[in-house]
Structures are given as C-alpha cells and as structure tokens.
Design brief:
This protein has about 300 residues and is an alpha/beta fold. Helix content is about 40%, strand content about 20%.
Length: about 300
C-alpha cells in the first residue's frame, strides 16, 4: 500500500512511518523540519521537504497515495497561546489544504491526528466522544476545527477520514529542546542533567499518558478499519490516569535520582484531569492499548540516557 505521513520526521510521525515500512508499505514523508528532525526519517522512506501551506509540495506528496497519516501540526497548548495565528495556520489551514489535495488525488482515507485538548476542562475527568467539545486553548480549537473539516469532507466529498484524539503521548524521540516540551522529556532531561525539574501547578493534575507504541498501533488499525469508521472520531488513550507527580516519581525511581522540583504557576490553558473512554476504539477499530506503565517509562528514560 502506498502511504503518505505528514510530519514524518517528528516524534509520532517517524514511528508511524517505521511501522508502515516494517509491514511492507511504501512510505512517503512530507515534512518542513520546523519541528521534525532529519535523523528521524527512516531508511526506505521517500522524503519530500515541504509545507502544508505549499500547494505544489502537497500535490507531489499525495500523488498516487492510498492512505494519508496526517501527523503534521504545531503542537503544544502554551505555544498556541503565545502564537495562535501560527497554530491556526498549520493546524487548520494546513489540514484543509491537505484534505483538498487528497480529494483531488483520489486518496482513499486520511487518518488525522487530533487531540484530547478538544474536550477542554469539563468537571468530570472521563472523556467520551459523545461529549460536547469545549476547548479552552487555541491549540484545542485548531484541532477541533480540523476534525470538523475531516468530517465535512467525508460527508460532502466521500473522502474517508478517521480522527484519532491522542491523549498525552510519551516515549522515545520526544525531544525536550523547546520550552514547549511535554512533561516527560522535560522531567527526564532535567534529572539526567542534574537540574531541578519544573513542576507546574501542584502536580496533582492528572493525564491519560499514552505510550507511543499504542498510538502507532491505533493509526494502523484506523487505516485498515472498514467503512464503519468513515468520518469517525476515536479516543486513543491508555484508559488510566496518572498525576504529574506520579510521572516525576516514576521517572526519578527509574533514574535512581531525586531532585526537589522547582514550583511553577499553573500554565494558561492547562486542565485539571483527563481520562479517555476507549470503548469506541475497541469496538470499531479493534484497537487495545498494550503498554505497561513501568516498562514504557523505562524505555523512555533509556532512550534519553543513551544520548537520544
């Protein structure tokens, strides 16, 4: 099968690309390297260096492709608050451009990487796809808007789309070089380097931290699912929550090093709790998370200790 992975040089996209190559698919990657890394591009993949806002690059990228895995985005809630126009351009306009290019090229299905941030901060921690989305950050708004474009292109143009709402992905290749780094790379890099990790809020905010291997498996299931998945939206999480303090303690235990964290205020756009109801993905996609928490944290830490 001929596939395209947008953002294929990034944390998630590169590992989706590897999994596709491993099962014998042809893989083309479109990446601008705004946030991706050249060393992440797997051997055997065709690379097109370009942007979702470049029609020519998009046309070349989707030509002859059956399935698109749309991982490219400007991620991070804090980044979107600092620069909402950039997030909107990459995440909304970029996705709309991709959908139009895919429709014109006769692509069969687009698997879209959405986010649990579309839910916002409702009082109950459990997130179901049937709940009304109430995003509280520009990032969440941008991911929801792109989701709705996916659904519209399925209904209006017959382009099959499947949207996967990722819950706090972690694992090897998640880089800490930016102040927008996620909690895992931020904690691990600080402790490895002997620095005090920054702990925002009180650390008791909880997240459904989901290991990268389970995210990759969900993408492959979404690509292969039948027509009952067309236009569908699915939570992809571990189905269990951990607090940020839990993460810090587990990472510290694996490293055998504790450094008292530096308290920081709550970040704008942060929500208190998230927990994925994954029954819909189980039923329709036939997907089930398999990662063990301790093993997944250890694999993540080992990647950092090996010098990335």
């Amino acid at each position: 099968m001929k596939t395209l992975v947008t953002g294929g040089a990034g944390f998630i996209g590169s590992q989706v690309s590897q999994a596709l190559l491993a099962r014998g698919d042809e893989v083309r990657i479109l990446d601008s390297f705004a946030t991706g890394f050249r060393e992440n591009v797997p051997d055997g993949a065709q690379l097109i260096e370009g942007d979702l806002l470049d029609p020519d690059a998009l046309a070349r990228a989707v030509a002859g492709v059956e399935i698109v895995f749309h991982e490219a985005a400007l991620r991070s809630v804090p980044r979107s608050i600092d620069d909402p126009l950039a997030s909107n351009g990459a995440n909304v306009i970029g996705t709309l451009n991709l959908l139009e290019a895919a429709r014109a090229a006769g692509v069969r299905r687009v698997v879209y990487a959405s986010s649990s941030s579309v839910y916002g901060d409702p009082p109950e921690p459990l997130r179901l796809e049937s709940q009304r989305p109430q995003p509280v950050s520009p990032y969440g708004v941008s991911k929801l808007a792109a989701e709705m474009y996916c659904i519209a292109w399925t209904v209006t143009h017959g382009l099959s789309t499947v949207s996967l709402r990722y819950f706090n992905v972690f694992g090897p290749r998640q880089h800490p070089e930016s102040r927008y780094a996620a909690v895992f790379p931020a904690f691990v890099s600080a402790l490895v380097e002997g620095r005090a990790p920054e702990l925002h809020w009180d650390g008791e905010q909880s997240r459904d931290f989901t290991y990268i291997d389970d995210i990759v498996a969900a993408n492959l299931r979404a690509a292969d699912a039948g027509s009952e998945a067309d236009g569908g939206v699915f939570n992809v999480g571990a189905g269990r929550a951990k607090t940020v303090n839990d993460v810090l303690r587990t990472v510290s235990d694996v490293l055998g090093r504790w450094i008292e964290p530096t308290p920081q205020p709550k970040r704008a756009g942060d929500v208190r709790h998230t927990l994925a109801d994954i029954s819909r993905a189980r039923e329709i996609l036939g997907w089930e998370p398999k990662a063990d928490w301790e093993d997944a944290v250890r694999a993540t830490v080992d990647w950092f200790r090996a010098g990335r």
